[in-house]
Write a structure and sequence with these properties.
Layout lengths: L1 H35 L1 H29 L3 E19 L5 E12 L1 E17 L2 E16 L4 H4 L12 E6 L10 E4 L2 E4 L1 E2 L10 E4 L10 E12 L1 E5 L4 E8 L4 E5 L5 E4 L4 E8 L8 E4 L4 H5 L4 E6 L5 H9 L2 H18 L6 H25 L1 H24 L2 H23 L4 H21 L14
Parallel strand pairs: 1-11, 3-12
Antiparallel strand pairs: 1-2, 1-5, 2-16, 3-4, 4-10, 5-9, 6-7, 6-10, 8-9, 11-17, 12-15, 13-17, 14-15
Helix pairs in contact: 1-6, 1-7, 2-5, 2-7, 5-7, 6-7, 6-9, 6-10, 7-8, 8-9, 9-10
Length: 459
């Protein structure tokens, strides 16, 4: 009798390690399943990137047909100038040769007022932000600086003086603009000469009275563009006033506006800039200057019309939390399994994980049609209901299924809040994850890991 009792005790002591080992083995296998689900999670992120790239291509096609982003540059006065250079001929003899170069003169004052009216164009499920705008420009050119530059007024070709304006996309012009210089009006023409001042040059050939560059100018541009409207800081004193019917502007370039106001439907901004932080001189001499290539990033500023909702960016942010949601769900399910003393097969873990991966396909497809918020609600409710009903069927009980559904709802709500936040997303994400881990630690402390009544998993 004593021998039998001793044998039972020995069997009991060996069952406990086996139970503990089986629990650890299942945890390890659940971890392997979680890692394997990383593969379809990456596929989902690639799919989101592909759809986002498709949106960018469609937006580019719309912009190409409508008109691209506009950068308004100038005006700049260009004065052809004869200079003499010493060269050597084939025999080595020095000769004096006349060369035509240019004097570039910036305005003293430049005032720009623009009223932009953006709108959204649709092609299928994709959107693009375009705009119409009227730009009123006025200013004044100053006198040539003769002493510092060593300019001989007699060598200036006054009959070939040009005033040049630059635009990114000439296709956006809706009228035939004319420039008022002094008391005369001059029609604007596209320039097809070798002058490379801007990417696209519009020129006039003014008649300067008494060979004097001191003159006022004004003109109006009625044009359209897409995505962005930018200007170049040209004058000694540049002032730009920009208003628009858009509630989500992004101010771009090197200079931010001194004053800005954004409401639910409109925005306004004012830039006032002296020439001290401008990357070029008020006047210089060069043969064929490419101002656009040298100063595009250093002297431009403006506004970008951001679409109110970018569902692809939000869906991508959601998908990056996929592995975290799956891991926390599996751990919660494992604890539910132990507390209810009902086993859940590994295949059923895989099915639940698959449902949580398909969730992101639902989110992506519905967000393209209904917007992100509605899509997130539909995909979350459908996934929570599916998994909750599945758990109720497995465990033959509604109570743990309702509890598990509540846990999933908290997880998806937590991720939704994180996506809406920007500056505070990291802090709230850290706090929320800490609370979830603390709750799981509390539940794990309530489980008697050596209790014989725990159902040993079968594989």
């Amino acid at each position: 009798m004593e021998n039998q009792t001793t044998e039972n005790q020995q069997n009991a002591t060996t069952i406990k390690p086996r139970l503990a080992d089986s629990v650890l083995v299942k945890l390890a296998l659940i971890g392997v399943i979680t890692l394997l689900l990383l593969i379809p999670s990456v596929w989902i992120q690639n799919l989101i990137s592909e759809r986002q790239l498709r949106q960018e291509l469609v937006t580019g096609e719309i912009s190409e047909k409508w008109s691209g982003s506009q950068l308004i540059e100038g005006p700049i006065m260009v004065l052809p100038y004869k200079t003499s250079v010493i060269q050597k001929d084939s025999s080595g003899k020095s000769i004096v040769k006349e060369v035509i170069t240019n004097i570039y003169l910036m305005p003293e004052v430049l005032d720009i007022v623009s009223q932009a009216n953006p709108e959204i164009l649709h092609r299928g499920i994709f959107d693009a932000a375009v705009y119409n705008t009227k730009i009123n420009v006025k200013g004044r050119f100053g006198a040539l600086e003769l002493k510092k530059s060593g300019i001989d007024p007699l060598m200036v070709q006054w009959d070939k003086v040009k005033v040049v304006i630059g635009m990114s996309d000439l296709k956006g012009l809706k009228n035939n603009p004319a420039i008022q210089i002094g008391n005369s009006s001059y029609p604007v023409e596209p320039d097809f000469s070798s002058l490379k001042l801007f990417s696209n040059n519009l020129i006039v050939l003014p008649e300067l009275k008494n060979q004097n560059t001191v003159t006022d100018f004004s003109f109006e541009l009625n044009l359209r563009g897409s995505n962005e409207l930018n200007f170049t800081h040209i004058a000694k004193n540049t002032t730009v006033k920009l208003n628009g019917n858009w509630n989500n502007p992004k101010f771009t370039g090197k200079y931010l506006p001194e004053q800005r106001a954004i409401t639910n439907t409109t925005f306004s901004a004012i830039w006032k800039m002296p020439y001290f932080n401008r990357p070029f001189a008020q006047q210089w001499i060069a043969q064929n200057q490419e101002l656009h290539a040298n100063t595009n990033l250093d002297a431009t500023f403006g506004v970008e019309f951001i679409l109110p909702v970018d569902q692809y960016q939000k869906t991508m942010r959601s998908a990056k939390y996929a592995i975290l949601i799956i891991l926390m769900t599996f751990v919660s399910l494992f604890f539910t399994e132990l507390l209810n003393k009902k086993k859940v097969h590994l295949l059923q873990y895989i099915l639940i994980g698959s449902a949580m991966i398909i969730y992101y396909i639902l989110l992506l497809s519905f967000s393209e049609q209904l917007g992100f918020n509605a899509a997130y609600l539909i995909a979350s409710v459908a996934t929570v209901l599916l998994i909750s009903v599945f758990i109720a069927t497995l465990l033959k009980s509604r109570k743990p299924a309702i509890l598990f559904g509540g846990i999933l709802t908290v997880f998806y709500s937590f991720i939704y809040v994180l996506i809406q936040l920007q500056d505070l997303a990291l802090m709230f994400g850290g706090i929320g994850t800490f609370i979830i881990v603390a709750a799981l630690m509390y539940l794990s402390a309530k489980i008697d890991w050596d209790k014989k009544s725990i159902v040993q998993p079968q594989y």
